[in-house]
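Anyone have tokens for Uu.00g030400.m01.CDS01? Sequence:
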Amino acid sequence: MKLSGTREASHAYSWYDGDRDVLSAKLDSFLDDVPSSINNSNLPIPGAKVVIAPHAGYTYSGPCAAWAYKCLDLSKAKRIFVLGPSHTYYLPGCALTKFAKYATPFGDLTVDAAIVQELRDTGKFQDISSRNDVDEHSLEMHLPYIYKRLMQTFESSNEYPTIVPILIGNNDGQEEKEFGELLAPYLKDPDNAFVISSDFCHWGSRFSYTAYAPEGNVKQLQSLTRRSTTPTNPPIHESIKQVDQLAIDAIASGNHNAFVDNLQHTNNTVCGRHPIGVMMAALEVLARDGAEEGKFRFKFVQYQRSSLVEDYSDSSVSYASAYAIV
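Reply: yep, here.
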């Protein structure tokens, strides 16, 4: 299939600034607020070619995402895979774009037609309908940040890497491993970088998730209702943080099964659980071939919430940023 057309920046002027200059200043501000070094390494971290970053409106998640993007090492990148969840339709398996380019307020990013076709030829991927592609935000929200970092890394737009947008659907643990195996050779290739799109806990009745750990006991989670007395030991927002920390610890362990088991226990509404799971499985493949200290595991550098929930009627979305050295 020949890729064609340009996907519009459909969430510009709503989820983020659509004016090039205003957006550039905003992203510069977010990035400038991140320290110049993390974990005893100057940024970007050499070899950190995989990141997890949130995908909410920039007012909410932009500052957190900046931590991931300032860590991301694009110095050798010739293409960037962007893995995100599907919010607009139920997707079993995984799906590839049909667009040739993705627009951003800074300019267009070119889709790597050869790699998309190579993946399509495996018979393991569906196509994203053009309508669903335009409606989906999990991929788009990363593109302005990617473009900004490309401007900071390369002298000319002629050197910019291509992108490989992939929606990761509702796969079980074994299916995630299979897609991880499939993507592992691309992850091993030094020409490739990966952006994994995910927010963390979506808490509140509007998300049908009101889990609470009484007295901080995350092994005995219960669901709050409108009839529940407002808990204070701990406050709800601290309970949310505890639940998220369990997921973060499981991801940082490098053990894909541990992450799958964690989500089965807490039902944490990590919307990018499947993209994260696929990438963890791919990292495990590389670690199997030769684990090295400090490589092939995510290290988290930032955690934020859209608000600090104190009452059942409140809600919040959590954001986390991480990187992995390959």
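The chain has nine helices and 16 strands.
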